[in-house]
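Help needed: design a sequence for this.
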């Protein structure tokens, strides 16, 4: 009986050391080392401007264009399904006589969803950024839900 009581703690010690050795040998799969410094110096990728539709059926975001390098598209995501559609392509944001699309810093829609206000090429005026471009959406385009 006494030998059985001694064997139980011995088996427990062997199991614990085997598990500890196994966890020490398992390399990190993501290659990221977590440290106190990394907690305070981490900088995430900025999201950019995001605007919800007035009926909350989806939202608009500014994303790098897949067709025009160095430019941005205004894309719409459906809230219920996550479906992504390009709402205003970078090519449509090229002013007459220009060779490249506008560099968008921010955007917003009018209350009726028919006008798009684009904030671009900011220049400080009285210590506040000031410069906007207004684009009238083509008929049939609207930020209102269909």
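Sure. Designed sequence:
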């Amino acid at each position: 009986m006494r030998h059985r009581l001694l064997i139980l703690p011995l088996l427990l010690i062997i199991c614990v050391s085997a598990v500890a050795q196994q966890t020490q040998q398992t390399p990190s799969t993501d290659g990221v080392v977590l440290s106190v410094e990394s907690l305070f110096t981490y900088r995430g990728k900025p999201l950019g401007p995001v605007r919800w539709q007035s009926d909350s059926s989806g939202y608009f975001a500014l994303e790098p264009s897949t067709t025009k390098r160095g430019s941005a598209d205004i894309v719409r995501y459906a809230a219920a399904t996550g479906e992504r559609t390009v709402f205003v392509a970078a090519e449509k944001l090229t002013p007459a006589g220009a060779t490249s699309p506008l560099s968008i810093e921010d955007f917003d829609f009018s209350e009726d969803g028919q006008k798009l206000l684009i904030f671009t090429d900011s220049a400080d005026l009285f210590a506040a950024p000031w410069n906007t471009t207004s684009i009238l959406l083509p008929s049939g385009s609207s930020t209102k839900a269909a």
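The chain has a mean pLDDT of 75.
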